Amino acid sequence: WIVGDSLLQRVAEGELGAMQECMDEYGGLVWSLARRFCPNLSEAEDAAQEAFVAVWESAGRFDPSKGSEVTFVATIARRRLIDRGRRRARRERLLDEVRDQAPPDQPAPGEDAAVCEEAARAREAMKQLSPDQQRVLELAVTRGFTHEQISRITEMPLGTVKTHARRGLMRVRALLEERSSNTSSEANS
Fold first, then answer.
1. What DSSP string runs through 82-114?
2. Hey, how many other C-beta atoms are within 10 angstroms of the C-beta on 17?
């Protein structure tokens, strides 16, 4: 590379290895920002990756006469992290609104006791799912939202929503079957 070219200029020009150098150089900075802005390690990892994608996409706008590379990288990363935090807060606010509007878990008058008991077992099984699976199934089953609507509410890709719904239902079914077989074998003992 030509002496005097900044690392970000090399990234913008698509120089092989320049982005890896950029991540090596500024990884600690981006990681520390991500940890400060994100509630957990997993989200911080995703956020750091997202920030570096933004740096890669924006590298062509870097102007050394307006500031240093470190300032440019920190600004891009910080903006992405703030946007991510706003999306998370908006998503949580929407989910809270949906939960507040959910019908109570109490059975309707005249509802079959066996159905209520089965529903209670299903609710218990759902508690063993991942938070995302719980959220998707709660919105689908309790509120009757379609996969597309759940995708918009949770800001998850449609395919991810469908996967969480399918795997969550399969897991609930397996847990219910396991509990049923355990209960029947205990009764036979």
1. HHHHHHHHHHHHHHHHHHHHSPPSSPPTT--HH
2. 11
Residue 114 binned pLDDT confidence (cut-offs 50, 70, 90):
low
Rounded to whole angstroms, the Cα distance separating 12 from 182 reads: 61
The SS3 of residue 67 is coil
104: left (phi over 0), alpha (psi -120 to 50) or beta: beta
**CA–CA distance, 49 with 139 (Å, rounded to integer):** 29
Answer yes or no: pTM beyond 0.90: no
Region 123-130: mean pLDDT is 86
d(CA 16, CA 61): 19
3-state SS class at 4: coil
Q: Left (φ > 0), alpha (ψ -120 to 50) or beta: where does 22 sit?
A: alpha
Give the angle subtended at the CA of 89 by the CAs of 86 and 94, to the nearest 5°.
125
* pLDDT of 113 above 70: no
Mind giving me the DSSP string for 132-188? Answer: HHHHHHIIIIIS---HHHHHHHHT--HHHHHHHHHHHHHHHHHHHHHHHHHHHHHHH
What pLDDT is stored for residue 94 in this prediction? 77
